[in-house]
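Researcher: Please predict.
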Amino acid sequence: MTKRKEEVGPSGLASALVASGALTSDWLPAFKAVPRDMFVPARIWPGIAAGTRQNALVDRDTDPDAWLAAVYSDIPLTTQWDDGKHTGDDVGRTPTSSNSQPRMVFGMLGDADVHKPHKAMEIGAGTGWNAGLMSFRLGSENVVSIEYDPEVAKGAISNLRDAGLSPLVIVGDGRLGHAEGAPYDRVIATCSIGEVPYAWVEQTVAGGVIVAPWGTGYGGEAIARLVVGEDGTASGHFTRSSAFMRLRQQRADRAQHNAYLKGREWPADGVRSTTTLSPADIDGWVEQFAISLRVPGTFWSVESDNDGSYVVWFYSDDTRSWASIDYEPGASEYLVVQSGPRRLWDETEAAYRWWEEQGHPDFDRFGLTVDSDGDRAWLDTPDNLIRV
């Protein structure tokens, strides 16, 4: 069914966000006063609401209607590829900056419970829209945004200025926060992390809230909502799934496939076995998240064939262990090969079975505690720790 004309644009997006519960009535004034189109460049690659892929380039100068429709859709918009090195019209290799999905933007602002008289620090300015929304709500003098990429920061500052807003935008390493402006009542990261920088905890008042997308290098990611305690710890549950671009200083530097097989043909020295657990059963976002907490220091990739079959490869970060599992449509048993001191498929299957035994917990049953010694994930309560 074609959308009615009046549903296209800001009002249509607002209606969709209100219906989803992400945009509450108290944030409607900010949504209207800080329009998303003022924070989106001319060239964008629209994303998909339920995934991490991007569609073809949309250019405002050549197709303004398609550009406006994308801007006022509930989807993320990639605005930079490959740290700015990619300049063509095609998609680049890795998206490195974006204007986030509106539902996620307002969901995270709701998680953080941002309101006057709070002072907020944002990690990852991007196009400046999130900082703009907080500035309208709190006053520009109460918002600090840290952006690592100088060109991205320059664009954010320009967008904010055009919107009549002037939060402090700093070019720097977001892991360090901004001690000069501390303490903060709220800290929001718009990039994913695998470790919460303790500086964020130190720069947040007791009772303050940190909201950040968190996930290991394996896969699966969720929004952590952490409350800072008097004892210098921060702890809380995850609230929802997420898929953000990684904080640049925490990106994985992974070895290539050949480093594991060491130039030998598969199966090399791998040990063969079979399993009845289909790799298709473990590829959901929450399944990946749960497995990642029980199988640390690993990642995976997929090698697909045209007939619907594929191979999933599992690797250890230290390049000593690998495993593969062959998927064929309609099969009830799957070939597994494992090599190295760790039996990565055995660990993965055990982690999945553990998740089943816990009642298939969703993200909101998991939680995270952070102190000066690092991050510790748990299920249901902070004393029920999960190995990470």
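Model: Residues 1-6 have pLDDT under 50 and may be disordered.
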